[in-house]
């Protein structure tokens, strides 16, 4: 049985193997198909190889692009880090620079009046001072005795005469004014070079200030640039004067700022008192439709009042009185029948609170207030305190101290130079401010009479330095070292220092003229002094020099 089954299977396998479909007799196409397949396989292989190359190229390009992007990102990151580092260093440098600048300004403002106690502190002069022949002690002494003392001997007599006449004129002014409606005029005070004994140039002019106040029930409410109100930089040193009722605050009641209902009434002000006609305020010399005192209105009122007063007392005097300057309210001139004349200024001022600081309407013969912002802005003058400071310091100085002599000589030289080259922005007030700074900075013994030459050089050096830096600070404003004996208002001591040269920073033409005038004065100094100096023998000069060595 198994053998039979094996045979049957063998037969079936033999039949299948020999089937013609599997092994045909004609097999000539097989080699051709093989070549085609091989050819197609080669073509396919070639196409695959090209595709592979293309893909490899794309991959290489992508890798190159990726590397470039990564490199660019690294560069950008490095540049950002470098920029951050640079910005950090720049910011740090700016902060350090600002701190240094703030420290320098604080140091200058805190010690701007400290010029040093030794003579060598200002030994190095600017280029303009080099090569200048400075007069020696003997020449200066002869010049001062011949030119200064010889022309100022009659100043005291002139002051006495002017003060007596001014008192009489103001008394007549009070009599012609309406006490219930006009301003109340107080006694006059002498200020300036004539009363500080350093004026040298003729004609001698006495400066008198006359405080005035409004009639009852009004009062003046003063506001300054350092009282907390906002004043622009070009109004530093100015203030405004508001005319208020005595029972009213300077800022006004809230009823003036808020609309009250018809059934509401202010308990402080009735309807009658709160309404102020425009004509009433104009009668109080205020600017139109405001409560602020108008300097131009004050000038007109004062000129009219002085004219009426003179008409009342003119029969008592054997001279004529006239206004010498149209732009100054009290620039007066006395004309005698002999042809001689005496000029003086009677200027109305308003007292600041209970101090001796005054709001002044006009500055005769001065450019200090040449560009007043408006007629409601008044310049503050500290002339009374300046006079008191000089008197106070003079008591501590040696006998016949040279401080006044220095200012007189410098004022004379400046005046002579201006007569040659024309006026400049530099004024005698600037020269006096320089002296005030040095009086506070220098010890008392440095102002001995034999040190006139050294102190005069110090003033010129200090002034040259201020001109170079365009900074000359007001002596009182911002100066916390003002002697307590003067009773100077603390509000001005704590204020920011006021630069008197600030107006010249933007006006370069005036600044250039001022610097040129100073340089010309230095170059012409010896010639101007020698012109008024008697001849001094050389041996006598050497003897004086040895005496002081």
From TrEMBL:
It comes from the Eukaryota. Belongs to the ITPRIP family. Residues 404-477 form the Mab-21-like HhH/H2TH-like domain. Enhances Ca(2+)-mediated inhibition of inositol 1,4,5-triphosphate receptor (ITPR) Ca(2+) release. Gene3D superfamilies: 1.10.1410.40, 3.30.460.90. The keyword rRNA-binding does not apply. It is found in: Cell membrane; Nucleus outer membrane. GO terms for molecular function: protein kinase inhibitor activity. Transmembrane segments: none annotated. Keywords: Cell membrane, Coiled coil, Glycoprotein, Membrane, Nucleus, Signal, Transmembrane, Transmembrane helix. It is a single-pass type I membrane protein. This is Inositol 1,4,5-trisphosphate receptor-interacting protein. Residues 1-20 form the signal peptide. InterPro entries: ITPRIP-like (IPR026250), Mab-21_HhH/H2TH-like (IPR046906), MAB21L/cGLR (IPR024810). GO terms for cellular component: nuclear outer membrane; plasma membrane. Its main location: membrane. Residues 38-72 form a coiled coil. It comes from Cyanoderma ruficeps.
């Amino acid at each position: 049985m198994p053998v039979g089954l094996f045979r049957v299977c063998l037969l079936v396998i033999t039949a299948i193997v020999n089937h013609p479909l599997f092994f045909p007799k004609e097999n000539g196409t097989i080699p051709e198909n093989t070549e085609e397949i091989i050819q197609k396989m080669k073509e396919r292989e070639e196409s695959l190889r090209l595709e592979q190359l293309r893909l490899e190229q794309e991959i290489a390009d992508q890798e190159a692009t990726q590397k470039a992007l990564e490199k660019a990102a690294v560069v950008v990151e490095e540049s950002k880090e470098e920029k951050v580092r640079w910005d950090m260093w720049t910011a740090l440098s700016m902060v350090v620079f600002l701190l240094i600048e703030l420290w320098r300004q604080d140091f200058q403002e805190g010690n701007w009046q400290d010029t040093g106690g030794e003579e060598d502190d200002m030994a190095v002069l600017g280029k303009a001072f080099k090569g200048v022949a400075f007069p020696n002690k003997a020449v200066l002494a002869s010049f001062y005795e011949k030119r200064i003392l010889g022309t100022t001997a009659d100043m005291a007599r002139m002051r006495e005469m002017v003060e007596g006449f001014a008192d009489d004129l103001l008394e007549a002014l009070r009599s012609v004014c309406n006490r219930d409606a006009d301003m109340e005029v107080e006694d006059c005070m002498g200020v300036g070079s004539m009363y500080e004994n350093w004026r040298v140039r003729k004609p001698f002019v006495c400066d008198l200030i006359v405080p005035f106040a409004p009639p009852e029930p009004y009062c003046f409410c003063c506001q300054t640039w350092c009282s907390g109100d906002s004043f622009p930089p070009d109004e530093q040193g100015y203030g405004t004067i508001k005319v208020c009722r005595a029972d009213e605050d300077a800022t006004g009641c809230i009823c003036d700022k808020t609309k009250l209902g018809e059934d509401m009434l202010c308990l402080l002000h009735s309807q009658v008192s709160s309404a102020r006609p425009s004509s009433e305020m104009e009668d109080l010399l205020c600017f139109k439709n405001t409560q602020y005192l108008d300097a131009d209105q004050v000038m007109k009122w004062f000129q009219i009042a002085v004219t009426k007063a003179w008409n009342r007392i003119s029969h008592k005097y054997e001279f004529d009185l006239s206004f010498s300057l149209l732009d100054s309210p009290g620039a007066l001139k006395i004309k005698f029948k002999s042809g001689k004349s005496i000029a003086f200024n009677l200027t109305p001022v308003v007292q600041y609170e209970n101090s001796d600081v005054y709001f002044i309407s006009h500055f005769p013969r001065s450019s200090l207030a040449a560009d007043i912002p408006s007629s409601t802005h008044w310049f503050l003058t500290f002339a009374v305190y300046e006079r008191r400071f000089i008197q106070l310091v003079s008591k501590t100085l040696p006998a016949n101290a040279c401080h006044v002599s220095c200012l007189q000589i410098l004022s004379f030289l400046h005046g002579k130079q201006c007569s040659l080259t024309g006026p400049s922005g530099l004024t005698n007030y600037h020269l006096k401010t320089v002296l005030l700074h040095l009086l506070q900075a220098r010890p008392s013994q440095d102002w001995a009479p034999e040190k006139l030459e050294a102190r005069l050089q110090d003033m010129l050096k200090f002034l040259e330095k201020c001109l170079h830096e365009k900074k000359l600070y007001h002596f009182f404003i911002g100066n916390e070292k003002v002697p307590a004996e003067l009773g100077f208002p603390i509000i001005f001591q704590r204020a920011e220092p006021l630069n008197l040269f600030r107006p010249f920073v933007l006006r370069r033409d005036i600044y250039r003229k001022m610097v040129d005038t100073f340089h010309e004065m230095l170059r012409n100094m010896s010639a101007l002094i020698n012109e008024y100096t008697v001849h001094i023998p050389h041996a006598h000069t050497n003897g004086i020099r040895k005496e002081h060595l």
